[in-house]
């Protein structure tokens, strides 16, 4: 079976109740659940949560909540790998044969069913362990600067002071939307960012990390502008 796992714990600190806070008229979680269901890629779309209210919202949106996530996997320090491993193990222990699982973040309102489909295609075609969403940096990371303890600037890579931007390789970062993986990769908690992983490249205008109130407002502006343009 193919499994979509949407992690959505209840203890968000910087944006309280972030996973079910209304974003452009819907609970934030809704955008991820709807994209997963519309993609047609999954036998089950589940939400892994420790929170009863989130579980109720997820069920009303059309996802399933077959278990409540244990407390030891619900703190601020638990990473993605053990959460998805727990979900895959739960299904295997209940008689299901999981072949692929896709982690979809709950705060990914720009996610599209088509991108999820492209991720599955890459996972199958490239015979890799993972296929996940990435986007390019808007500026060459090799020319980044940092502010030191004296309040002065330093180049992170001073060897590139005289290198022209167009001569530098393009760099990418995690888009924070979805992570397709073989069940065996999740079960072994194989690192996502490394050999055996392939990218699914997204345009920058459909990527926004949402960790602060400022991020949230910017994402809503982007979302509304994008959908107004499409009408």
Oligomeric composition of the shown chains:
single chain
Order of helices and strands: EEEHEHHEHEEEEHEH
Annotated CATH architecture: Alpha-Beta Complex
The number of strands is: 10
Question: What this model shows, in words?
Answer:
This protein is α/β, with parallel strands linked by helices. The protein has one domain (2-136, 172-230): Spore Coat Polysaccharide Biosynthesis Protein SpsA, Chain A. It has 6 helices and 10 strands; from the N terminus they run βββαβααβαββββαβα. The protein has helices at 28-39, 52-61, 80-93, 113-125, 183-187, 213-230; strands at residues 2-7, 22-23, 26-27, 44-48, 100-104, 130-136, 145-147, 153-155, 172-182, 197-201. The strands form 3 sheets. It has a 6-stranded mixed β-sheet, with helices on both faces. Strands 2-3 form a two-stranded antiparallel sheet. Helix 1 crosses helix 4. The longest helix is centred in the C-terminal third of the chain and has 18 residues, at 213-230.
């Amino acid at each position: 079976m193919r499994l979509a796992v949407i992690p959505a714990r209840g203890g968000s600190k910087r944006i309280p109740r972030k996973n079910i806070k209304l974003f452009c008229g819907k609970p934030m979680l809704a955008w991820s659940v709807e994209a997963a269901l519309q993609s047609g890629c999954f036998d089950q779309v589940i939400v892994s949560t420790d929170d009863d209210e989130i579980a109720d919202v997820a069920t009303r949106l059309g996802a399933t909540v077959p278990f409540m996530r244990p407390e030891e996997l619900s703190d601020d320090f638990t990473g993605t790998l053990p959460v998805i491993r727990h979900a895959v193990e739960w299904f295997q222990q209940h008689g299901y044969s999981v072949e692929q699982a896709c982690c979809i973040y709950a705060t990914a309102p720009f996610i599209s069913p088509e991108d999820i489909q492209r991720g599955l295609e890459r996972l199958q075609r490239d015979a890799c362990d993972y296929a996940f969403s990435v986007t390019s940096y808007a500026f060459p990371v090799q020319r980044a600067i940092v502010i030191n303890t004296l309040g002065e600037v330093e180049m992170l890579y001073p060897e590139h002071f005289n290198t022209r931007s167009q001569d530098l390789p393009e760099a990418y970062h995690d888009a924070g939307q979805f992570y397709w993986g073989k069940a065996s990769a999740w079960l072994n908690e194989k690192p996502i960012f490394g050999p055996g992983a392939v990218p699914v490249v997204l345009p920058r205008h459909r990527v926004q990390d949402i960790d602060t109130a400022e991020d949230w407002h910017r994402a809503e502006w982007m979302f509304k502008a994008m959908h107004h343009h499409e009408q």
